[in-house]
Amino acid sequence: MKPKDQNTEPAFCPTRAMVELRHSISIGSRGSSSPMKRDGDLSPLIPDSQPNDDDDHDRYSSKDRDRPFWYHFHSICPFFNDDARFSPHNSRICLVLLLLLLLLAGLISVLSIVNRLNAPYLCRKDGIVLHCPHVKESPSLWENPFSATTSWKPCAEHRDGGMSNLPSENETAGYIFIHAEGGLNQQRIAICNAVAVAKIMNATLILPVLKQDQIWKDQTKFEDIFDVDHFIDYLKDDVRIVRDIPKWFTDKSELFTSIRRTVKNIPKYAPAQFYIDNVLPRLKEKKIMALKPFVDRLGYDNVPPEINRLRCRVNYHALKFLPEIEQMADLLASRMRNRTGSSNPYMALHLRFEKGMVGLSFCDFVGTREEKAIMAEYRKKEWPRRYKNGSHLWQLALQKRKEGRCPLEPGEVAVLLLGMGYPKETQIYVASGQVYGGHNRMAPLRNMFPNLVTKEELATKEELVGFRKHVTSLAALDFLVCLKSDVFVMTHGGNFAKLIIGARRYMGHRQKSIKPDKGLMAKSFGDPYVGWATFVEDVVVTHQTRAGLPEETFPNYDLWENPLTPCMCKA
Fold first, then answer.
1. Are residue 515 and residue 483 in the same domain, yes or no?
2. Would 553 be classed as within a structural domain?
3. Do both 333 and 313 map to the same domain?
4. Residue 414 near residue 18, CB atoms below 8 Å
5. Contact (Cβ atoms closer than 8 angstroms) between residue 358 and residue 364
6. Residue that finishes a domain, picked among 292, 318, 344
7. β-strands 152-154, 512-514: how paired?
8. Residue 559 domain-assigned?
9. Measured between alpha carbons, how far is 439 from 410 in angstroms, rounded to an integer?
10. d(CA 303, CA 37)
């Protein structure tokens, strides 16, 4: 059974007061119209001169132009008055005209109603505010309104039966090679972009290499995570993909080290035309080139729609995790749904509060003087240029928190979920690294929501031993369990969260994907005069439009978080 929606005041006493947001409406003063002035001072009883026939004609023509449409209809059809001179023939003409007018008005009304009923559900932005169409359904904790999720369907999938017009491997412009850097999700985005760039230049793509990251320190290969056969086969009608560098290119080390074989001047979010004008000529000359670096080196709204659709095809259809990863994720999700002895929904929480994230944010958090001193030294060591002498950091931290740019602490997440109405019994899967502050930092969240579990608590050591060989394999398990959850809650930005939200939108918008308004939270926690009831009302109203509903795209939008326009069609 699903936990009941609870919007009542919880039985705990918050130790910190929260903001009472005041919504004021400014009322403009109403202007009054001044009386009209006479055109002249002449008396209407004493004409200045006798009017001629042309003057009369102009005067009456002007009056006729100012008369309403129904006056002219009245003159055409005099049976509306007591004039008995009209003929039966004129009467029939007038009745036909009237009937036609009524039919036209009715048709316009029907078409207007049909258009409104058939208009797809779409939230639209007004500045930073998102306005969503009203629905009659009562709000649910676990699902988006059904009527809001039936207007769009995925349409980026591969079409069977189509004829491929791709040239053979030897007839393409050449071979391109990339290093997919960063963590698993940044690597995933790089792979999608590499396929798109290969299509733009009509090139053959060498299977990307997953480069070791300084933080992850993981030597994972493409085939250790993804199903290579499915990847190549699914995209066979879109792009030529080969598993390795061609045999005729004997000096493979040159591809990684030689400037002559590397394109390094690709700007971030480059348009498709940049590759055609600057990279393609070099590729045709050298026949094989490496693109480095390749993080976010392809834009979104400056490439053709079919290229963005191809990126979605790669992300949502071609890139599949290995069967053993998929099976283990299914097992973990099944255990989450049966933790109460019967079927229950579950929430997935992406908690980004690791030491590196806290340090990089340069935000201030609750802690002892000793903790703050240790964190200051850590920041000074890792980011000396940003740290400088540290004198400006307090003001910077206040500004970032006010703007909602700081990660949510575990205790803040707990208060937010309570404000939304989630009961204490909610089953929550936590995807995170090692939380900064350990058990003490997690205590408020665990006290309010005791049913918190991680993959290490759901599975035995024996079940996970095969996945510990690669850190990215464990990250893949978190990704899939979050993807399958009834409700997904992010606490800070990043590729993991936006890929999850985008995929859940692509699957139909039914599943809730909550993106907290951290600006509202900062404002609420920072004011000493808030009441719990006011806080709850603000949280519920604000987050009704932040749950992964269909949302229009905008210039420089993020394709991975909102695939609506290029990759989804009206249902």
1. yes
2. yes
3. no
4. no
5. no
6. 318
7. unpaired
8. yes
9. 11
10. 60
The structure's pTM equals 0.78
At 498-524, the pLDDT tens digits run: 999 999 999 999 999 999 999 888 888
CB 445 within 8 A of CB 414: yes
Q: Which residues contact 525 (CB under 8 A, 6 or more apart)?
A: 16, 18, 19, 412, 415
Bridge-based pairing state of the strands 240-242 and 204-206: parallel
Residue 521 has which token pair? 């939270």
Q: Is 415 exposed, middle or buried (0-12, 13-18, 19+ CB in 10 A)?
A: buried
Q: Measure the CA–CA gap between 94 and 88, rounded to whole angstroms.
A: 10
- 535 phi/psi in degrees, rounded to 5: -60, -45
- Are 468 and 554 in a shared domain? yes
**CA-CA distance, 187 to 200, in Å (whole number)?**
20
Handedness of CA 471, 474, 475, 476 (dihedral sign): positive
CATH number for 251: 3.40.50
505 near 548, Cβ under 8 Å?
A: yes
Distance CA 266, CA 263 (A): 7
Mean pLDDT value across residues 78-93: 58
Q: What is the tally of structural domains in the chain?
A: 2
Q: Is residue 53 part of a domain?
A: no
Widest CA span of the chain, in angstroms?
112
Nearest to 244 by CA among 204, 275, 280, 212: 204
Closest CA to 548 of 186, 137, 136, 132: 132
Shared domain check, 368 and 309 = no
Q: Are residues 339 and 447 both part of a single domain?
A: yes
The boundaries of the domain holding residue 310 are 175-318
Do 206 and 344 lie in one domain? The reply is: no
Kindly state the DSSP code that residue 367 receives in the 8-state scheme: -
Chain position carrying tokens 């009456």? 60
CA-to-CA dists, residue 197 to 240, 265, 288, 298, angstroms: 12, 15, 14, 8
Chain segment 347-396, per-residue pLDDT in tens: 999 999 999 999 999 998 888 889 999 999 999 999 998 888 878 888 88
Domain-terminating residue out of 260, 285, 318: 318
Q: Which amino acid is at 2?
A: K
**Whether residues 345 and 238 fall in one domain:** no
Q: Are residues 395 and 433 in the same domain?
A: yes
* CA R_g for the chain: 33
- Give the bridge partners for 241, in sequence order: 205
d(CA 571, CA 567): 12
Residue 58 maps to a domain: no
99 Cβ contact list (under 8 Å, min separation 6)? none
Angle at the Cα of 323 from the Cα atoms of 321 and 325, rounded to 5 degrees: 65
